[in-house]
Protein 1
Amino acid sequence: MFSLSSLSRSVGSRVGNVSSTSHRVATALSPLSLFTRGRSQLAPRQVQHIKRHKGRVPIPTGGSTKGTTLAYGEWGIRIKGNGARLSAKQLTTAEEVIKKKIKVIKGCKVYLRVFPDIPVCIKGNETRMGKGKGTFEFWATRVPTGRVIFEIGGAPIREELARDALRQAADKLPTLMEFIDRKTPPRLGNLVLHPPKPSKVVVPELLVEAAQSDVQLQSTAV
């Protein structure tokens, strides 16, 4: 037989457990909540692997010049110095500088030719070795030498204004940049590939005149 006091205690404990579980709020963030992308944030919508190796900046050892010339705009900047790893924050800051400078021109657009899709994980300072990889910090992208970063187009814009806007954007990036236009030749690493000069075409009339002059010289010599 159960006593009334023990029965009341058991019922009260069960009610307390139910109320505590029903009003419990999960405060811990899930690991995937760190990868939520804002509307104006430079980040991929979904990734296959949450963490990735650090990797190295690619070196253009082959003969491909893809991505070293303009494709959408009339003016742009590309990397002239060593390749670098650009973070999403650096690219966003540079893009905002360009937009602020060219907003006076109606219809002018900014084209971003690279996208930060590599997750960078960092461990704290003075941390002992082991215990897995660090936590996610920011998104980044690795760009080699000669790669176009920004382009300006969509509306006629003066070269002076484009140079000024892209110069201010280049100051926000951690490598040396150069200003390019539609006529700028492609780049293969540190080598600028200028188009070959057209060969001299010999006109048949000149050949006839040269032959006549040779015959005259031979006749005078005889």
Note: The two ends are 149 Å apart (CA to CA).
Protein 2
Amino acid sequence: MRIRMNMVTEMIVMIMAMRMMMAAIADDTNGVFSPCEDAKVQKSDGFTFGLAFSKKEFFFFDNMQLSPCDSRLALASKMAKLAVFRPKVDEISLLTINGSIPLAVGGSMVAFAGRKYAARSFPVTVADEQNTITSFTLVLEFQEGTLQNLYWKSFGCDSCSGSSAVCLNKQDCAIPTSKCGSTGCSLGIQLAFSGTDKNLEALNSWYEVSNLRQYSLYGLYSDLRDSVTGSIPGFIPGQ
């Protein structure tokens, strides 16, 4: 009897999980999953974009910055690294990345998406031999559901925390790279949206982030992670 009850419970849990997945898919009307293709989105859609990591000069061709999707950059042959994400449109998201990745391939990062518009952010420095910047804010700007621009925003160093934190150029929180260890410091990227979706509805998550700029989602995440992992004997973060 107990075995049957366990099996029934497991089946109910599986059915509920499948229903939640189907509901999430049903809300997502965007069938474009490549960061190198164009998409027209509405609120609650998933939107795929990429982060490319390499040397700053590798993102330019004949003194012009190109999208990492452009084959003229030949980033693959230059050992660049790529991370792809699919956040929900107009939801504030927190992305985390191992800081050893950008340091190993040149230390700079570009956000990008699309083919015709080929939107890309300006390269930002993530890490070098001296410091690793641990907190970024990326805004995706849309017009009638089409991505027009990606840009990095900085709110100064008010949210820097920890005894090892340093402020670079009075705008970026960083940690000495020597204190990051062999696995590197984790990077936190707060993601927000602005502009309008394909139904001309305003995307407001950027305004929410700007109103809360004195707080760091990554700092809150780090504090929560440390409090949880510190209370579990033998727990090793990342494993």
Note: The first helix runs from residue 2 to 27.
